[in-house]
Amino acid sequence: MVSTPNTAFETKTFPYGDAAIAEGARLITAGQPVAVPTETVYGLAADAVNAAAVAAIYAAKGRPSFNPLIVHVIDLAAAEAIAVIDDAARALAAAFWPGPLTLVVPMRPDSGIASLVTAGLDTIAIRVPAHRAMRALLAATRKPLAAPSANASGAISPTRAAHVLASLNGRIAMIIDDGPTSAGLESTIIMPGDPPRLLRPGPIPAEVIEAVIGAALAAAPGGIIAPGQLASHYAPAKPLRINANIARAGEWMIGFGDLPGDDTLSETGDLIEAAARLFDCLHRADASDCVGIAVARIPIDGIGVAINDRLIRAAHR
Ligand code: TXA
Ligand code: MG
């Protein structure tokens, strides 16, 4: 166990295991948020039924309260207790749960979910995660857990416990460390319906989802339907340049494939590896003593769509 002193909270990091899950469940039951890995990124989880606990997530992240959270549940039956899952949603759940897919569906009026979770919307974003740590926490608390990415609002998402500590040290009581996350990008968000809509590209590419539902995905409409998709989301502290061929003076170069750099997303040009490494590379670039970041061109193909989505947001300021 590694302890780091600070002002409001002493943020303790526990390695994944029975003791970590017992302590995490104790804190969540007491209304506190806990950082825990999922297969996508580390989340900051709290009891979604407890308004004060959800408010504590917003406070720790410094997140604008109009931005709704994803609720994590242990299985489809638990999702159905909270939300209306129609045939289209059920087909997606059957294909991709547990896994990195979030569905935005109508919330049941008697769901019991704190209204702060949905920021007053009548829909709810819900997913069944695959990661053993998040699943153990769901099983131990027997609660739906609201969990945004475990970073200060607007900062790069965490794919390692050390990223969480760097962003939220002193703002939360506990981090469960179970190593780097496998997917590395936040879940794909779909709103089933006519037409079904892609609200956020993610680890499951749009064409894989289209093959399951047998229909083309429409883009997210403008406005606030996925309010967390603010243009400046995922921003590193330094200016970032995308589609770079070579580093300019003072830049930290993140390469890909044949294009080398100070670091690489994937030496072999593997997009899955690049997705898993993206946020870690951005955290390292931010921590370097260079004044800017340059990133090689990433093919807009498969999960490359989601990588480019995150890079464009990181470059926007
Ligand atoms: O992979 C993930 O999804 C991670 C892990 C921790 O599960 N979570 C995550 O949460 O990325 P967050 O809060 O960083 O992003 C949630 C996104 C935001 O863009 C938010 O606006 C959108 O989901 N969202 C939540 N509820 C919504 C709703 N009812 N309608 C539309 N968008 C919604
Ligand atoms: Mg986030």
Describe the structure.
The chain has a nine-stranded mixed sheet with strand order 3-4-8-5-7-6-10-11-12, with helices on both faces. Strands 13-16-14-15 form a four-stranded parallel sheet, with helices on one face. α1 crosses α6. It contains ten helices and 16 strands. The protein folds into two domains: 2-219, DHBP synthase (Alpha-Beta Complex); 240-315, no CATH class. Mean pLDDT is 92; it is low at 1-6. By secondary structure, the protein is an alpha/beta fold. The chain is 31% helix and 21% strand. Bound molecules: threonylcarbamoyladenylate and magnesium ion. Magnesium ion (MG) binds next to loops.
Tally the helices.
10
Taken together, the total number of domains comes to 2
Average pLDDT number:
92
What binds here, in terms of ligands, is: threonylcarbamoyladenylate, magnesium ion
How would you summarize this macromolecular structure in one to three sentences?
31% of the residues lie in helices and 21% in strands.
Task: Summarize the helices and strands and which ones pair or pack.
Layout lengths: L1 E3 L6 E5 L2 H12 L4 E4 L4 E6 L3 H11 L8 E3 L3 H7 L4 H10 L4 E6 L8 H4 L4 E5 L4 H10 L3 E2 L14 H8 L5 E4 L10 E4 L5 E4 L5 H8 L4 E2 L20 E5 L6 E5 L7 E2 L6 H17 L4 E5 L7 H12 L2
Parallel strand pairs: 2-9, 5-7, 6-10, 11-12, 13-16, 14-15, 14-16
Antiparallel strand pairs: 1-2, 3-4, 4-8, 5-8, 6-7, 10-11
Threonylcarbamoyladenylate (TXA) binds next to strand 6, strand 7 and strand 11.
